[in-house]
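User: Could you check the structure of this?
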Amino acid sequence: MSGNEELQQKVVDWFNRNSHEGRTKFYLKDVVKGLIDEYEKRETQKAVNDCTVAGTLMYYSTGSTTMLVLTENFPKSVT
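Assistant: Sure, the predicted structure tokens are below.
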């Protein structure tokens, strides 16, 4: 596993640890802050972006702010 793949897995693990009912969406700064002891800010930002490209994470926009959420926790639209 390459360093970036390892960091991507740590990002997903961070989301799994911190996600619970009522709190599944996080700001990028929350993720960076959660992993800052182990990784540089830019490395974490790149890994988060790579997770969105891979489909593991999704962006969630309220119109005024943008957050990140695990794909499996993304709110389903009501039709």
